[in-house]
Amino acid sequence: MYVGRVSMDKNGMCNNHGNLFIGSSEDLKVVVEFLQRELGSAKLFGYRHHNGRIAFSEINNINEIFVALTDIQKPGYYRASSGYRFRHSFSSPKVFLLPPEYVILTVSRDYDILESSSSFQELTAIFFGIKPCDRKAIDILDRILYGRSPVYTTRRNAVRAIVVEECLEPGETCFCSTVNAGPTISSGFDIAYARLYGDLLVFRYGSSLGEKILGKVGLQRAQESHVKMYLEMVNRAISMMRGRIPNISEIQKALMEKVSAKPFWEEISSKCVGCGNCNYVCPTCFCTEIEDRVENGFSTRVGVWLGCLTYTYGLVAGGHFRQELYTRYRHFILHKFLFYPKQVGDIGCVGCGRCITWCPLGIDLRETLSRIAEVKSQ
Amino acid sequence: MSMGIQRAIHMNNPFTFRKAIIVNKVEETPNTHTYTLKCDGGLKALPGQFNMLYVYGLGEAPISLSNIPIFRGGHTLLEHTVRVMGAVTRAIISRLEIGSLIGIRGAYGNGWPLRDAEGKDVAIVGGGIGIAPLRPIIKYIEHCREKFGRINILFGAKSPRDMPYKYELNNYNTISNTKLLLSSDTPAEEWTHYTGFVTDLIEYIDVNVKNSVAFVCGPEAMMRVAVKKLLNKGFKKEYVYISLERRMRCGIGVCGTCQFGHYFVCRDGPVFRYSDVEDYLWVEGI
């Protein structure tokens, strides 16, 4: 069983293809069912197409796993369509691990604590169909929140198995390979699969639990031709994303030079409206506000997401440390590329492209990064 | 990725606060009170650390210790000086009296590095409510005076009326080998001390700057000026410490809202060595 928190390797590419198997979408369902049974009726969490939304949530029935769905993503644009190249949606596994809203405490008028959040203690969960980029995002969140944030820690402990879907065709806003977060995965999962085409999937195990399950299901070993096709598609996906952002060390060097270049940041953030969508869809953004909600003589202290692009971020009683929008936009960029490395030892961007897709103005992070790297310090 | 047992973390909810009762209140100024809180059991807090004070239904505010806690008879007595700044502090000042309850959790943050200051001269520079977190340093030094060299205390406020701890400031002059300099930003009758900014007093510091530590707290703009002047005066940037304020909601480095550069002010600070933050301190809104 995969439980540890591991750091991602360079490109998630697996060197040993001896453990590749092939199967169909039906086989995938069987794999998941076996895995659930193995873990004592674990609950399944993954992407679910419901009421026109594709959200990361509990999958109650194995037949809710969609097989014929593609997303079309562009700056400020998202559509679901038929096909089998689904990448992700606005929601990421973060919504399970650090929900948009959660109760921290319930307090009486006499300052007695009536309830302390620990309701996830009993849950056993399987993450299904999460992407390599989002798997890496979990590693990053682990290093900030695990063992510190009670809600994150209990929910993270509930995740007993991880099934990853690798991407063989990146979306238009994706750039995972340029930040070493995909499109394939080499560690930190139990089972990984990828759709070669139509109903032909390749499977891999990444833990002894995964090995056991794939063995039980009795999948066929992949043939040389399958392996070749898989690797070709992986390489093609990587080459499609190549150059979508500048080299990370160039970005970092330029950022250090430009930290104080106010006119540059004002200009580059001029389209931003400070809505915070980028923060909420980002799988590594974790900033939280705590609110008191008073009802029936009790106050419930609730944790809610707080985006650094929104006006509230940096606001304090008697002042504001980030009143101007450019400082908040800059913080988003600096945090991901300069500060995360100092906080967790890796950049905080996994190249999922959600902040680009879900920006109502279509502001493209990749363009911002290119401009940062190209313009000389002002 | 090992087979491993599920990591069993018996995690108490760190957001759980303790009930405290207000046992004393001193009106420093109309909008600034010093409260003595009493809570059951021990609560360790170092000079420069802070507690999250909770007011029912409103929320928490990070407030520095303004004295060294006393543990007596199974209780801890803690002092916090609170100035009206926002909703929580306004509720504290306007509503809470002796006998009132309040929630408290902490202590958080790193505190002033008093051990590193031993054997050295000490300059203490405080502006306005920023004086509160500096006061425990003076109390600490008084306790073990022989461990420190010459002391200079520079306190300033907007007006004499806004100066906290007026009733005890003169006692600081009686601590051996100590100089106290006070300032008021605005002129006032009967004010016998300096009129002007507290940072102007830095030029009158008479400690041996080559072997001194400076502790600074006040509004950020004041601290920037203070840092510049202290460095000009010859203080080493590794020995100039400032205590920063940011939006803080958790105190334990998980809410992310107190970030200052790559630091979490609540956990990595609030006290920073100037040389560790010199890349950030001069950048607006970082």
Notable traits:
heterodimer; A: 378 residues; alpha+beta; 12 helices; 16 strands; disordered N terminus; B: 286 residues; alpha/beta; seven-stranded antiparallel sheet; seven-stranded mixed sheet; 7 helices; globular; 4Fe-4S ferredoxin-type domain-containing protein (chain A); 4Fe4S_Fe-S-bd (chain A); 4Fe4S_Fe_S_CS (chain A); oxidoreductase activity (chain A)
Query: Helices and strands of chain B: which structural class?
Result: alpha/beta
| Uncertain residue ranges of chain A | 1-15
User: What is the string of helix and strand elements of chain B?
Assistant: EEEEEEHEHEHEHEEEHEEEHEH
What overall geometry of chain A do the principal axes of the alpha carbons give?
Answer: globular
Going across the biggest sheet of chain A, name each strand in turn: 3-2-8-9-10-11-1-12
Note the gap between the termini of chain A.
52 Å
Overall geometry of chain B:
globular
Give the oligomeric state of the chains in this entry, treating copies of one chain as homo and distinct chains as hetero.
heterodimer
- In total, how many domains does the architecture of chain A comprise? 2
GO molecular function (chain A): oxidoreductase activity
Protein name (chain A): 4Fe-4S ferredoxin-type domain-containing protein
Which helices and strands occur, and which strands form pairs?
The complex is a heterodimer of chains A (378) and B (286).
Chain A: E1 21-23, H1 25-38, E2 43-50, E3 53-59, E4 70-74, E5 77-81, H2 94-97, E6 101-108, E7 113-116, E8 125-130, H3 132-145, H4 150-158, E9 159-165, E10 191-197, E11 200-205, H5 208-217, E12 220-221, H6 224-241, H7 248-258, H8 262-268, H9 277-281, E13 288-295, E14 298-305, E15 315-316, E16 319-320, H10 325-344, H11 354-357, H12 365-374
Parallel strand pairs in A: 2-8, 8-9, 9-10
Antiparallel strand pairs in A: 1-11, 1-12, 2-3, 4-5, 6-7, 6-14, 10-11, 13-14, 15-16
Helix pairs in contact in A: 1-5, 7-12, 8-10
Chain B: E1 18-29, E2 32-40, E3 50-55, E4 59-64, E5 70-72, E6 75-83, H1 87-95, E7 101-108, H2 114-117, E8 121-127, H3 135-143, E9 151-157, H4 166-172, E10 178-184, E11 194-195, E12 212-217, H5 220-233, E13 240-243, E14 259-260, E15 263-264, H6 265-268, E16 271-273, H7 274-281
Parallel strand pairs in B: 8-9, 8-12, 9-10, 10-11, 12-13
Antiparallel strand pairs in B: 1-2, 1-7, 2-6, 3-4, 3-7, 5-6, 13-16, 14-15
